[in-house]
Amino acid sequence: MANQNNEVEYLYRISETYSNMSKGQKKIARYFVEHQSDMCKLSITQLAQKLNVTPSAITRFCQALNYKGFSELKFYVGKNILSSHNMDNTILKEDSLSVLIQKLMMLDQQAIADTMLLLDSAKLKKIAEICIKAPHIHFYGEGATGVSASMASAILMQIGIPSQNYSDSVMMRMAASTLEKGDIAFGITYSGKAFDVIEAIKIARRNGAATVAITGNAGSIITNMAHDQIIYSGNIQDELTQLPIARICEIAIFGLLQITITKLSKQSPKKLEGIRKSIEQVRKQHNHNM
């Protein structure tokens, strides 16, 4: 089993253990194999209702296959579906500029589609509800993910929710040490291995704050450290030409968080309209100065 590809290993694990599964587990296994695309669109609660089992039964099934839970198994199923349909978008040295642009745009689209399959709407709702009540919201990102952290703050400010973002290693730790129960901290790292972000999340969690990992690596250190995880496309190469794709996925997730908060929040429409007017005034002023 060690030489199996991660994306299809779940099928191997199911086939190897199927004969020893209970009747209920076989029912779940058949659905996973026969309806992979449909399964990726469902939350664990929705899937449990569809199969007439409990969410805990699905979790136990996933753990019996040596996955941490439904989210991790769903991640690999989603990757397999996408890889089986993807054209070869490998960036080649001899590619013309027009071909290079086409390949990169296709990679962008694939990453967003991948992320859509991996998103758990129930989990997004849970995180949004915490954000609505949280006195303090922090976003941590080092290097290029610092851009995403900054954008996350701007996206929430557009709906009247203030937050802070930090990309300096010392400031992240200092800020995390001020959080307490009721607050929430987001750690952003594609690899899931960014040391300073992990340390900040560790401190925030130790102080009682809710913690969320935003990452493309479902089995990474930060996913084990944070209370909740939002996983996006892991099908992004560690190359200069593809680095912006991770940022696109991260910012898209925060856009979805904004929409979810707006949907759930009892924020005064008058306040939101005031924010929109302020933004419009700034735009008009900039246009006038130009």
TrEMBL record:
Keyword line: DNA-binding, Transcription, Transcription regulation
Span of domain HTH rpiR-type: 8-84
Residue ranges the record marks as coiled coil: none
GO biological process, alphabetically ordered: carbohydrate derivative metabolic process
Single Gene Ontology MF annotation: DNA-binding transcription factor activity
The keyword Zinc belongs to this UniProt entry's keyword annotation: no
Entry keyword DNA-binding: yes
Positions of the SIS domain: 127-262
InterPro entries to which the protein is assigned, alphabetical: Homeodomain-like_sf, HTH_RpiR, RpiR-like, RpiR-like_SIS, SIS_dom, SIS_dom_sf, WH-like_DNA-bd_sf
Protein name: MurR/RpiR family transcriptional regulator
Organism listed in the record: Hominiventricola filiformis
